[in-house]
Design goal:
With 140 residues, this protein is of the alpha/beta class. Helix content is 31%, strand content 24%. The protein contains four helices and seven strands, in the order βααβαββββαβ. A seven-stranded parallel sheet has the order 3-4-2-5-6-1-7, with helices on both faces. The protein is globular, with a radius of gyration of 14 Å. The protein starts with a strand and ends with a strand.
Length: 140
């Protein structure tokens, strides 16, 4: 059964810099040897995440790149901006307004701290539930 985990941003550290949570999730995925797609909501967000993954933790190394290179299939963490295609992977971190497309075993949804920005997350929860996903919520 596919699984959807919703990570609700709550801690001040993540409220101040929401992409730090994405970096932590990518670090965990890499440590678990889980090839990961990060679906960015914009080209700017994809580029910001690319830069932050190099510097968010001095002790961590998360091999990653922006999609669109011949090494995409070999890169453990692939950041995919809108309009770019990438092969399916079993783990997806979704930062977009729509449910993650493609075939995967697990999707991680990052939910903004601002209540006004959570509407899309609630709709995705309902869509995943209707599709038979196992759902879990984590306060971060």
């Amino acid at each position: 059964m596919p699984r959807a985990d919703f990570y609700l941003i709550d801690k001040p550290r993540f409220r101040a810099e929401p992409l730090l949570l994405v970096c932590e999730l990518a670090k965990r995925a890499f440590a678990a040897q889980q090839p990961t797609l990060i679906l960015a909501s914009s080209q700017d967000q994809a580029e910001a995440l690319d830069e932050l993954l190099w510097s968010f933790d001095e002790a961590a190394f998360v091999p990653h790149q922006l999609a669109g290179d011949e090494d995409d299939a070999l890169t453990p963490v692939l950041i995919v901006p809108p309009g770019m295609d990438a092969a399916d992977r079993s783990l997806v971190i979704n930062l977009r307004e729509d449910c993650a497309p493609g075939l995967f075993e697990r999707v991680l949804e990052v939910v903004p701290a601002d209540e006004d920005q959570r509407t899309g997350s609630r709709a995705r929860w309902k869509t995943y539930k209707a599709a038979g996903f196992e759902l879990t919520k984590h306060d971060m």
